[in-house]
Batch of 3 targets.
Target 1
Amino acid sequence: MRILGIETSCDETAAAVVEYKNRKFKVLSNIVASQIKIHQKMGGVVPEVAAREHVNSILPVIDKALGGKIDRIAVTVGPGLITSLLVGLETARTLAYLWQKPIVQINHLEAHIAAVYLLNRTIRYPALALLVSGGHTELILIKNKKYKLIGSTRDDAAGECFDKCGRILGLLYPGGPAVAKLAAQGRNKIAFPRPMINSPDFDFSFSGLKTHLLYHYAKLKKRYSLADICASLQEAIVDVLLAKSKKAAEKYQPETVILCGGVAANQRLRKKFQKNFKNFLVPKIEYCTDNAAMVAAAAYNKKPVPWSKLKVRPNAIIK
Ligand code: KG4
Ligand code: ZN
């Protein structure tokens, strides 16, 4: 079965073809048109601008991804920016109608988890997934093909914290990769707060860390290099993510621990998780940040819906 995946939930226009054969996944094409350069001017994603860019890019991107025939279409319906989602969904709907192909609607969060399918490794259940992206920080227990949300951020997401701190530090959007790059040259010298690290639940809070940096940056930059500030910030975020994941693993005893979402591209985070969990899976870097191969992968065992029934779900949750 060849699946065409389409992803436009935020600021990447993406299409991919994934083949599912003999219980193995093979990525035949994976095209991502990033809007980063456009949004850098404003320091963040402007929804209307993002939607217009998706309109410009979606057909060329799909064209590039397509090789031979496909058997079904998978499209992200949410969560995400409503006007961005609509571009992908209406394009997918039209193609499904024209080509008379089944269409599957995909939850973006589920797609981030499905990125590990592309490793073709056995996933033993129950599995515990830490999903860390620009919009989400969630600990999810996967058992009997069901998702159970056991903890999430009460304010900013981990990626959002990286991005907002990057902005305070005068780095280009998105702050995550920019902070990580500088952090690699610095040392963890500053004891930044680790919000909620000892709270008895599995929730997170990152907005206080950003505020702390905002209040103290003027003083800190006199004493420390930008690289050291970045390394210390990264360490604080990684510490909290790891501590809460370890705590959840102790309670739920998962057979597999999964790290996914855009922040899972962070090398320090990957390394720390690798060291701390025995049965650990993380997607290849290119399948951590938004892409359509993960959307196609999530669709292999899902029931298609009639094209006329497709609907965007900007506030979808995972369930
Ligand atoms: O999954 P994603 O591409 O989009 C959403 O669904 O949100 O995640 C984007 C987020 C951004 O906040 C970005 O700064 C962060 O992932 N990110 C990183 C790294 N690469 C991307 N954060 C830390 N280190 C990285 N290397
Ligand atoms: Zn995402």
Note: The first helix runs from residue 36 to 40.
Target 2
Amino acid sequence: MVGPPADVDLWRLAWEHSPVGMTQVGLDGRLLLVNQALCDMLGYDAADLSKRGFQELTHPDDLEADLALLDQAVAGEIDTFRIRKRYFHAQGHVIWGDLSVALVRRPDGSPLHFISQILDVTEQRDNEERLSAATAEVERERQALEAIFETVNVGLLLIGADGRYERMNRRHLETMRLPFPDGHAGTAGQLGHVYLPDGKTLMSTEDMPSYRAAQGEEFDDYRYWVGDDPATRAAFSTSARQVRGPGGERLGAALAYQEITDLMRAMRVKDEFVASVSHELRTPLTSVLGFLEILCDRGDLPVDATTQLGVVRRNALRLQGLLADLLQVGQVAEGNLQLQRTEVDLAALVRDAAEAARHVADKNQVAVVLDVPDRLLVTLDGQRVRQVLDNLVSNAVKYSRPGDSATVTLRPAADGVVIEVADTGIGIAADEVDQVFTRFFRGAEAVERHIPGTGLGLDIVHAIVTAHAGTVTLDSELGRGSTFRVTLPARVG
Ligand code: ADP
């Protein structure tokens, strides 16, 4: 009959199969008995290991503490102890062990030997070290970011997904006083002394950069004025980016506020200068043109003088056109673009614009193709839209090579009209496409080919289209051509 194992058998089973290293250690430190787990841990076989003393297996830096505890046990001050210490593996590397020791005494109380259990915690220790190195790295990074956050001369604001202000740096805190002299409640979209770039129109909640960012928008260089006193107000350019978690979920947004007061003032001075110079030049030029008309009408001038006067008149007219562009740019900058909406036949307007470009197109051997309905009645500012058409069509002709073509398409759309001016001309480099609507911008290809221009036309196009609440976009490929697409919301028919 098989009965339950005796205590001694149980002890032996536990000893042999324990995953924890176990040893019976003599008072001199020799390992009298060792189990398989300890042999595996330290890389010896049992016979070899039991010849050794724990002192030679222990890392010298940990020996003193271990010996002191053993002395205390032998002296009867303690019965057991537990320490974390390093052992040497047979192959020389270090093993971290979690050591528990109990002193076994004879019935008369004198010390007999120690029973030690050693758990291999090397891997745990390595993980702890890696974790603490990573934590230190994160902390260093955090401190570096904190230093940057507080030292940059740009206002920085972090808002949560619900639009609450979570953090801002010192710079932003300082600049908040101008738009919000009575304080800020810390929620995106609070109204204050914040004005659109014209410096006059107060921003609505939907315009506020923090509100837009809280709604999930991302933007760059969003400009506006803050402060109700024109003498002390400041201009800012703001960018926003969404902050997302590892799973792509929105955590909030980060906003950067750069002060650009000097830049905005300088731009205003430049616009005023351009406006006043063009205005001053217009009066004498009108007089020059008037007298030229009179001279050209005289029948008694020699033929060569009449030809030369024709050249003078053409150039004076070109000057007049340039001045008109400059004046218009000045008006746009002032926010003074007033529209006179009437019902016009847009198809006829397109045909007129194409006709006006015909002379240069023929000279450049560029075919102008029209794809327009016979008639399309639309309510908009006909004169301004004609300027848009003139600029786009003349550009299409100007920036094309002999044999290229320019096609103007006009069609009604959902709530207005779409005008497309496509050419097969020189095209625009990809990195310049975003800049063509910027005032005075000229593409490298245009400059290289010495094609005359001022960089004002597309700025005017953009301003007129925007005033109509429309959009103008550009698709272009260098060497293959460009397509400008104007969408104008308007009443059709
Ligand atoms: P301008 O033609 O007087 O230089 P615009 O404002 O009309 O000024 O155009 C700005 C720039 O955009 C031009 O200098 C040219 O580099 C580029 N551009 C405009 N239209 C075209 C086009 N159809 N094809 C190629 N480049 C163009």
Note: The chain has a mean pLDDT of 93.
Target 3
Amino acid sequence: MSDIIQLLPDAVANQIAAGEVIQRPASAVKELLENAIDAGSTQIEVFVKDSGKTLLQIVDNGCGMSATDARMSFERHATSKIRTAHDLFSIRTMGFRGEALASIAAVAQVEVKTRRHDDEVGTFIRIEGSEVKEQETVSTPVGTSFSVKNLFYNIPARRNFLKSNPVETRHIIDEFERVALANCQVAMSLHQNGLEVFRLPVGNLRQRIVSIYGANYNERLVPVQEDTMMMKVQGFVGKPEFAKKSRGEQFFFVNNRFIKDHYLHHAVSNAFDELLPKDSYPSYWIYIEIDPSKIDVNIHPTKTEIKFEDERAVYAIIRAAVKRSLGQYSVTPTLDFDKERAFDVPYSDQFKPVTKPGVMINTGYNPFERDRESKSIQTAGWEKLYEGLRQEPKTLSTDTAAVELPLEHAPSVAPALSSESIFQLSHAVIVVQLSGSGMMLIDQQSAHERILFERFLLSSAEQVTGSQHDLFPVTLQFSAQDTSVINELREELRSFGFDLQEFGLNSFVLHGRPDSIEKGTEKETLEKIIEEYRQFQTVSSPDIHRQMAAALARSLAVRRGRKLSSSEMRRLVDDLLQCKEPGTGIDGKPCSQLLTAEDILAKLKR
Ligand code: ADP
Ligand code: MG
């Protein structure tokens, strides 16, 4: 029998390697940006078309390449950055594996134009699927311009695997921000489909952060600075009161390389300790300078994970540094975190109906169709207890015709309740006595979320936009990340009453806002929705509409900790009982509970 092992042809080997390094357009952006940085550029421009699916172009003014180097740069393991194994322990450049260009060229149509400062002419090379198609001498500015066209054109499976444009754009912005945050000394810009997303001038770190996230970040930053024999730590942490509900702005850079490190993340979170409101995450931009021989960056193909020789010491230093800055800036836990300034409107105002004067209800529309079975079991007890209280509104009939239900005819529980029979525990739980048979305990926050959720679903299902139009529409400015989420959700937002029109450089004109939202709080509400959305979105969620309704409800609902007047409580109970699922919060957990005298006796083992 003959031998069967063969060496893979280069093109195949490169494609396999590409699978590790280049997962999506954003990975190519990262590699090309890092190369531009390594080339000593002071200005880098990025142009993106179709979220990088059709074109990515990175133009730098760095050192450029000779004709031979330009040709060589596409070979696997071709690098100018290390020569010996020993060099691996003193890496200061972003790249060193010599894989990126070979990988990109294996899975795309790539063109490079490059010229060194002292050369009169430059080089042009076109390469497709690892095959050089064209090479010539051209006149071109000093520096290098890489165009990557039709990524994965020769691997349809990978191309089909790419996510929607807004999702891929977000990944690109992520990578761009990471490189931008690590290189304040380089002017950088990003354009997508002709629109400018970022224009970042040279500046210090604070200025860079502000030009990325917006002017309001200036007051949010607390500097961190620590010099030890072993390493240097500097950067910023966000003041606790600006902590986010989703992990967004958390950055570690080691020798200017962005890294992910759960252990060090823990060090920062730990330093924040009780300063943070529950379920929120600190923002931080922390830069570590350490002798390269004390770390190993060579453990991951995309180089986002590194190993420290003495991880525990690094942990201790970072924790101490963050703790000290927070202390120095006397950010103490006296702040009232539970108070949500943006939503500090009287509770009763929050109950302004989304549609008026009547609610159009499509009785055939059942947003809970899918899990009706399990839910009907949970709510079975309700039906029984509320017989009489809940004079079975027409809304719950199975008739598919839309019926109009004027608000004033809405069933009310009020007559069944005396003023003594409703009160609040710990400003969080509402207790209602029910016509002698028992009592209902209601978590005010999740109950209100349930109410708002069903309202938003109903109003949008009926295309009743419930939108308020102001005479002078406001312009709202967002971060680039938020802008891409807004674009992703634009249609959904519109169906809930947010009428946003794009207005260049991450700004929008707001032509209409939902009735239920106070004028002046639109931006904060939208930011909250975006954050909620980021936090709760599941990659494969089939029903973005429900998710949006839930995000809106969560961001507008009254919080636990808010004192409610008895009429507000009554109103809430009343509204809850009109919900299709009064017993279940929108997170699927119970939002209220019934307790009968029997239950209580049973609990007491009587
Ligand atoms: P690595 O960055 O790991 O060395 P790459 O495949 O990314 O490997 O790049 C290969 C080589 O091509 C680099 O080592 C560098 O010499 C050269 N190169 C790549 N991009 C640029 C650029 N923008 N300007 C100058 N030289 C570049
Ligand atoms: Mg590289």
Note: The pocket of adenosine-5'-diphosphate (ligand 1) is lined by residues 31, 35-36, 38-39, 60, 62-65, 73, 78-81, 95-102, 144 (CB under 6 Å).
